[in-house]
Amino acid sequence: MKTQFVALLLLFLCAGMVHAAEDLVERVENSARSWLELVDQERYSDSWSASSSQLTQNKTELEWLESIKVVRTPLGAMVNRYIATAAQAESLSGLPDGEYIVLQFYTTFVVKGLAMETITLAKQPDDSWLVADYEIK
Predict the structure, then answer these.
(1) Using an 8 Å Cβ cutoff, are 38 and 64 in contact?
(2) What is the CATH number for 64?
(3) For 127, left (φ over 0), alpha (ψ -120 to 50), or beta?
(4) 133, 97, 129: which is closest to 118 by C-alpha?
(5) d(CA 129, CA 28)
(6) Cα gap 35→81, rounded to integer Å
(7) pLDDT (tens digit per residue) in 55-73
(8) What is the DSSP string of 23-42?
(9) What is the pTM (predicted TM-score) of this model?
(10) Which of 44, 86, 92, 49 is nearest to 65 (CA)?
């Protein structure tokens, strides 16, 4: 009886941890999608302002505007975006150690067709998640 109780308790704890992880991924994905919406609308200055200090300290606003226009303009408008992967990390190349979640999206564009967007979000002191890096291939 005691063994069954312990097993049941462990099952509830594991289920709670899985639910918490799903909530975290959903919260981070929503943050990433909100930021991507700014980029999709060509509100590049707003996307820079809404980014984490990891991004804004690596690139000035002018550098960001120039680099994002070069990358996004040839693709055309965004048509669809589907999440492909999500992974947590504490150490990433080019970024200081911290709490990160890397999301990859399969995204289709009017001109380019299919592309892979990789968005790295950094956990902030207020527990929010802001974009620290963006790549598209």
Answers:
(1) no
(2) 3.10.450.100
(3) left
(4) 133
(5) 6
(6) 13
(7) 999 999 999 999 999 999 9
(8) HHHHHHHHHHHHHHHHHHTT
(9) 0.82
(10) 44
